[in-house]
TrEMBL record:
Cross-referenced Gene3D superfamilies: Glycogen Phosphorylase B (3.40.50.2000)
Organism superkingdom: Bacteria
Key words of the record: Glycosyltransferase, Transferase
Domain Glycosyltransferase subfamily 4-like N-terminal: 12-170
Organism: Actinomadura montaniterrae
SUPFAM superfamilies: UDP-Glycosyltransferase/glycogen phosphorylase
Official protein name in the record: Glycosyltransferase family 1 protein
InterPro entries reported for this sequence: Glyco_trans_4-like_N (IPR028098)
Length: 376
């Protein structure tokens, strides 16, 4: 499993997926190797997964690809030493330039293409062109493409006439949370609105803050998150907040128990993500029973359906939704319960891992090839 920061999962959706899928494959008797970067786990294995740590160039444009390149070279050396992998799972289409090396090694490979990365405003025109080219390379050189949302499947079918395997993420279902953590942070259940997001324009943190500030809400807004390489956008968001005493920026929260308590205790969770397919933060909020106000794009409607959330397209619509939730907290609570039920039925990690296992078996047996994904 290559192309992410690895495990233990401390960062984002890809890392969580690697951990949840990898530990289940290991428990099922498979030998799982995860390539990692960053903070080291003290043991050579984690939850049954073998960990290989390699460095990366710590710059926005080079970090992921440099680490993946070293990982693939390590895999090449292992293959020469007769210890090579039967199947590779590559995460992030941005890593597609490494695929020809894996092909040279005759290692069948599936690429999890993620969302529409080229739409992210943090990338310049050159960056956008790179991501569009990387998508085409993923189609050309992968034996299978993994899409975590039907909307992503539609995109690859329409743009590349390429088939994908639909495997979503799983949702953690919270049956209880540490309310003491919430109290220590100064909040009570149902007593605040919540945003959890990396500070990037396509996550619409600015719309969340602007919409809330326009509202007559009495309950405070708690904003969790930050982002590397995003100082200008962070300044913009905080300028929109102004001196509104109702708005608190907590920065990154790495205490998972506290984060779960925030999700479960929020009157509403405001979800502005728009380009990433099935979003793990949205699934976590649903699994916690949060009442979701989501930016109105096809990915979010696909995950929430029509009963488990409300949608907004701009700050004015969000302000109205926030006020409506405070006026009728019972209805907001009912939507949160519907969201948890939907997550528990549709986004199950055991099912996700089983789908990855079937895919790996198909790759090893040659039942999925580049011809297959190109629809020929």
């Amino acid at each position: 499993m290559v192309g992410t920061r690895g495990v233990p999962a401390r960062y984002g959706g890809f890392e969580t997926a690697v951990e949840e899928i990898g530990k289940r494959l290991a428990a099922g008797g498979h030998e799982v190797t995860v390539y990692c970067r960053g903070e080291r786990h003290p043991e050579p294995e984690y939850l049954g997964m073998r960990l290989v740590y390699l460095p990366a160039i710590e710059k926005k444009v080079a970090e992921t690809l440099s680490h993946t390149g070293l990982s693939v070279l390590h895999a090449f050396r292992s293959k020469i030493g007769k210890e090579g992998a039967d199947v590779a799972l590559l995460f992030n289409a941005a890593n597609a330039p490494m695929l020809p090396i894996l092909r040279t090694l005759r290692i069948p490979v599936a690429t999890h293409v993620d969302g529409l990365e080229w739409k992210r405003t943090k990338w310049s025109g050159t960056g956008q062109k790179y991501y569009r080219a990387a998508e085409a390379m993923a189609v050309r050189w992968s034996d299978a493409l993994i899409a975590d949302a039907v909307g992503i499947q539609d995109y690859y079918r329409e743009r590349f006439d390429a088939d994908t395997v639909f495997i979503p993420y799983g949702a953690p279902i919270l049956t209880s949370t540490d309310t003491g953590k919430l109290a220590d942070a100064g909040y009570e259940p149902g007593g605040f609105h919540l945003v959890v997001a990396r500070f990037e324009p396509e996550n619409h943190v600015h719309v969340a803050v602007d919409g809330y500030r326009r509202s007559k809400a009495e309950k405070p807004l708690v904003v969790v998150g930050s982002a590397p390489y995003a100082d200008e956008y962070t300044a913009q968001v905080k300028e929109l907040a102004g001196d509104d005493p109702r708005i608190t920026f907590m920065g990154g929260v790495w205490d998972q128990d506290l984060l779960d308590a925030l999700y479960a205790g929020a009157l509403t969770y405001i979800h502005g993500h728009s380009v990433g397919g099935t979003n793990p933060s949205l699934l976590r909020a649903m699994g916690a029973g949060a009442s979701v106000l989501a930016f109105d794009v096809n990915f979010n409607r696909e995950v929430l359906g029509e009963e488990a959330g409300r949608f907004f397209g701009d700050a004015a619509e969000l302000a109205a939704q926030v006020e409506a939730a405070e006026a009728d907290p019972g209805a907001a609570g009912d939507r949160g319960a519907a969201a948890r039920k939907r997550a528990a039925e549709r986004y199950v990690w055991d099912d996700v891992a089983a789908a990855y296992e079937r895919l790996c078996e198909d790759l090893l047996a040659g039942r999925r090839t580049r011809k297959t994904i190109r629809g020929k």
